[in-house]
Amino acid sequence: MAPSAVTNGYGGMYLPADGSTDPELSRREERPKVLNNPAAGDVTILEQLYGTRKKMRVVMLGAGMSGLNFFKFAEEKLKNVEIICYEKNPDIGGTWYENRYPGCACDIPSVAYQFPWRTVPWTKYYSQSKEIWEYLKMVEQENNFVEKYVKLQHRIVSLSWDDGVGQWTVRVKDLVSGREFEDHADFVVDGGGVLNKWKWPDIPGLQDFKGTLLHSAQYDERTDLTGKRVALVGAGSSAVQILPNIYDKVDRVYTWVRTKIWITAGFAQNFAGRDGANFVYNEEQRRMFQNDDEYLAYRKMIEGELNQRFGFIINGTSAQKAAREFSEGEMKAKLKDRPELLEKIMPDDFYVGCRRPTPGNGYLECLAGPKTVPYTKQLGRITEKGFIDPDGNEQEVDVIICATGFDTSYKPRFPLLVNGVDKAEQWKDNPHPHVPSYLSLAYAGVPNYILYGGAYCPSAHGSFFPLIAAYVNYTIQVIEKMQIENIRSIRPKEKVVEHFMKHADTFLKRTAWTGPCSSWFKGGKKDGKPAIYPGSRLHFLRLLEKPRWEDFDIEYDQEGDMWSFMGNGFHVCERDGSDITWYMGHPKQEVDEEKVRRIMDGTKGIEVGIKR
């Protein structure tokens, strides 16, 4: 049950302390001071209980899936913490609020794409973006998260840390009024995600086009494509979903497949429909979802298949060979009447998984359809009326849809200053992934800052929800340690990060991710360095269960006294009504303690004889 909460001056929510302080023990009267300790310098004994949690203010960036999960467990586990979240969009949901293009759906089965603490009976095996967003909105409304924590339509302008102050200065812009203001935080949690900053393609003349210009990440759902001539730019996950979902409506569609791609079934296809197709759950199946144990068993089956996908990423394995043979067979069957197109788009020099596998039910059939004009050469120039084709002819179109993805460079999206040095500027010319990433959740030398899904995240082979849970659990452990042990700042050691990245880069050479493909894992470059976690999801989840404190530089509130948190010699359990004999364990069944006392009271006054 969440503790009672009080609003604060910034509109955030304050999670109060647990009442563990003792007024008698925390009076500000003079107490003995230990002087001239040759090992530690002057030491002041703090009049507080060991286990007392100092007050901290946490700023959360983004109210998507990560933000919602953080709010949930912060309420349950953190005390004496003030939380405020800044979200740039008019509503929560992150990528699922923003992406509404035709056919937008998740390639992870619905039942594996939800919080384990709030499961629902989904409509389809693979859910559309609208249903996913509605689920996230339901979770938010049930918990009243926006009212308690979130400032919508507020964008982070910059973050600036000062060691002298021991806090972040957070520069924020109110996107409604245009006003900028400053906030402050003891700790920052960045849940913005990597698929967040969409970008227009770098094509000459793009902004000269006089027709309807759309990006998949900002798609106008009111757009009617009936009878229209459409140019679909891109061949990644979004384009692969868009083409079969607009094909029947349009008069003609022009599309570009510049780099070779593997088109596969969706994740966990063994539980999907025929040939890995999506399907609608029937009434019997949805009734089964009402049985918690049966639904959990089904979800564990799906998750179990997802957790076995890492095997086909390792070069030279039988799983990798089988994945390639399966995908080759699928593509050859669907393009049997277009062998010249098959030859141009099916990879022959890298394995399945080099790019994130692209589930594409119906894509190849539409690509080979009579209304589609596919190009395998780069789009040269956009005109006011359309584009110039590879033969130099102008093709007129009504609509251009750019399904060209996001800026996945991992560079900070805003100035990130530490003691006056802008890390975003400092790192911008580094080779991909640009940043000195610690386990995908922090940067070398950047204090009191955790991000979710950074460079070297295991984002290529499964649902993001278990990863979010691991990130949040890790974050809460860090904040609790800072509160209880009077820690001023905590940051990954630069040498530790250097060694981690060397290990990761060396390991990744044995994976399909280093093949000669263009992928966002590698910053869009064939010869780029992949920034994927060097192991399976299970490997990652186990590693993040407990922080490796030896990997961090830690500074304390009481300079020169890292043991100040020990306080006046008492623990909070001695004052807050907790079990003070916890170390003995607990009775296996409820015991009438009054009965025990009554029976034992009968021994009072009985003298035990001792034989001599």
TrEMBL record:
It comes from the Eukaryota. PANTHER family: FLAVIN-BINDING MONOOXYGENASE-RELATED, L-ORNITHINE N(5)-MONOOXYGENASE-RELATED. Its cofactor is FAD. Belongs to the FAD-binding monooxygenase family. Residues 12-32 are annotated as: Disordered. Keywords: FAD, Flavoprotein, Oxidoreductase. Pfam families: FMO-like. It comes from Exophiala oligosperma. InterPro entries: FAD-bind_Monooxygenase_sf, FAD/NAD-bd_sf, Flavin_mOase-like. GO terms for molecular function: flavin adenine dinucleotide binding; N,N-dimethylaniline monooxygenase activity; NADP binding. This is FAD/NAD(P)-binding domain-containing protein. SUPFAM superfamilies: FAD/NAD(P)-binding domain.
